[in-house]
Structure to design on (231 residues):
């Protein structure tokens, strides 16, 4: 366990389904992130939250909807996805948003999403 | 544009060999650089974190160096073992005026250590 827990580990969903990914951290971190990792591509930043406030949306389609109800939990709500959205979705946290005096990022194990 | 490049994309070596993985980045305004390991289908495990003011960090058989002015970092693995087989990712934490910082990843080097 890295301190960041993601559930479920695997998810298969149809294009008309609605599902949610969950991320939880008990590291006392103030910033949380969603990343997408597609085959043969670098990790792509999707969303950034700091102290439960969304500070960045990296041009992500509206079929992905993040939610951060408190500093320990982050959700990614999914609806009307496309097959090309199939990927590994990784959650990460960091002590603070500005990384000047920090210990880097801690990543979860990811959710492997397959859209059929 | 702030970008990170890793060379080589793939590397296959016999067990026991010392090896170097390379990472280059386009902007010297960084907070830190982090090397990660990723096993197939799994998440990222942090290996080493180098702050922008540091030149190198060591952990066991791993040594990472940073030359901020030239935009380069190397990850040195000594006496490689089959268990080191994984994808190694370099991530640079760039300074960004609007949001404070942005962690940008390279495409990774896929390492295979043959017994």
């Amino acid at each position: 366990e890295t301190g960041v827990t993601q559930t479920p580990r695997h998810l298969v969903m149809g294009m008309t389904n609605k599902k949610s990914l969950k991320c939880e951290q008990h590291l006392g971190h103030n910033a949380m992130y969603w990343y997408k990792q597609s085959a043969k591509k670098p990790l792509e930043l999707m969303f950034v939250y700091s102290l439960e406030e969304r500070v960045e949306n990296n041009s992500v389609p509206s079929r992905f909807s993040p939610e951060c109800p408190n500093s320990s939990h982050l959700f990614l709500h999914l609806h009307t996805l496309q097959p090309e959205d199939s990927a590994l979705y990784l959650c990460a946290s960091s002590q603070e948003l500005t990384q000047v005096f920090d210990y880097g990022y801690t990543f979860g194990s990811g959710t492997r999403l397959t859209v059929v | 544009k702030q970008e990170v490049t890793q060379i080589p994309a793939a590397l296959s070596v016999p067990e026991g060999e010392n090896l170097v993985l390379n990472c280059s980045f386009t902007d010297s305004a960084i907070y830190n650089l982090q090397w990660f390991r990723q096993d197939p289908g799994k998440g990222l495990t942090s290996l080493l974190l180098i702050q922008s003011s540091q030149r190198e960090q060591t952990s066991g058989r791993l040594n990472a160096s940073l030359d901020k002015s030239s935009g380069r970092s190397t990850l040195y693995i000594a006496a490689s073992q089959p268990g080191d087989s994984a994808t190694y990712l370099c991530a640079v934490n760039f300074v960004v005026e609007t949001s404070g910082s942005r962690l940008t990843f390279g495409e990774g080097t896929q390492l295979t250590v043959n017994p």
User: Anything to note?
Assistant: Chain A has a mean pLDDT of 90. The two ends of chain A are 30 Å apart (CA to CA). Chain A touches chain B at residues 2, 6, 33, 40-43, 45, 48, 55-56, 88, 90, 92, 97-100, 102-110, 112 (CB under 8 Å). The longest strand of chain A covers residues 18-25.
